[in-house]
Amino acid sequence: MIGLIGELFSFLVGRYYLANAGYTDMPGYMTSFRNTRYHINDFRGVDLQQLQREEKFNYIHVKLRNVIEKRFGGLKERWHILNGVPYCKRMKRAMLIISCFALENYLWMRKYGADPPSYELPEWVELNRGTPISGVRELISMVVWSGV
User: Fold this and answer.
1) Is 56 helix (H, G, I), strand (E, B) or coil?
2) Low-confidence residues of the chain, pLDDT below 50?
3) Where are the chain's structural domains?
4) Are strands 29-30 and 17-18 parallel, antiparallel or unpaired?
């Protein structure tokens, strides 16, 4: 089911879930390059301008994943039930998690307004809609590495 959601998500809006290397290359999940430096500590003291293409992509990937993980940490601080979702039927656990996210979104909209940011998707997103995820990762890494 999650794979189907990821595939629909990437197909409909040209966006992807950032996933760690434990995931296989599948539609909707953007993983890092394997057998290449990845963990944030591996980049300490390294001149980022001298990184190879795959390393630079992995550096950006891990930085983005760290932001997401910190955000989940903030959610767990506010909604303590997320620290250990109680044992109950799977659907009920899913509804508890979704409810916490819905409440978080509601509070965010009350604070900042309900208008979502609007921006145009780059043309390459549409052009590469049918491209396998590994090909999209290669394209992104080339753009990032070339500094365009």
Assistant:
1) helix
2) 1-13
3) 2-74+133-146
4) parallel
